[in-house]
Design goal:
This protein is mainly alpha-helical. The chain is built from five helices and two strands, in the order H-H-H-H-E-E-H. The protein is globular.
């Protein structure tokens, strides 16, 4: 399962690139903290049925978010989603038989690959595209920070429901 990561605060002063990447790292580490120390059963626990939302589902979803935005949209890799959406809409949230270790390894690998892509970019103004829409790296980083912040709110509520733990 997840270990509790070291999570330093983002810098109070930095250039735009440094600030955006630090906040993305902070949000990723926050999600890892929310999932650390839980059993497979706890990670699979749905928030409020009939919702399929669970911490394990969020890990699978965030893995695909990282994969699609950085590798597919920005870097132009021709890769499928990790979990086949043709099998079931929102398949990443179907976790009754999902392996937490597989999901968190996939998420960690996608974050690491995204970091490599970000580091190789020449500028926040570099672009990728999807369906005739052009996205700058600045947009993608900002969107990912927003995506993690929203799902970290969900994760906070899920964790509180599981064991009463709240906060960062």
């Amino acid at each position: 399962m997840m270990e509790v990561p070291d999570r330093p605060d983002p810098p109070h002063q930095a250039d735009e690139f440094g600030m955006l990447t630090a906040f993305l790292t902070y949000q990723r580490q926050t999600f890892a903290i929310k999932c650390a120390g839980l059993s497979t059963e706890q990670l699979r626990t749905r928030a409020v049925p009939p919702s399929d939302l669970s911490l394990l589902g969020l890990a699978r979803h965030l893995s695909d978010v990282e994969r699609s935005w950085f590798r597919f949209v920005f870097d132009g890799e021709d890769i499928p989603p990790r979990w086949d959406p043709q099998a079931r809409p929102e398949v990443e949230f179907a976790v009754q038989d999902a392996d937490p270790d597989e999901a968190f390894v996939a998420w960690s690998e996608e974050c690491a690959r995204a970091d490599e892509i970000i580091a190789a970019a020449g500028s926040l103004d570099d672009t990728g595209s999807y369906q005739d829409q052009v996205y700058s790296l600045r947009y993608i980083l900002t969107h990912l920070i927003e995506e993690y912040a929203r799902h970290n709110g969900h994760a906070d509520l899920l964790r509180e429901r599981l064991d009463g733990r709240t906060g960062d």
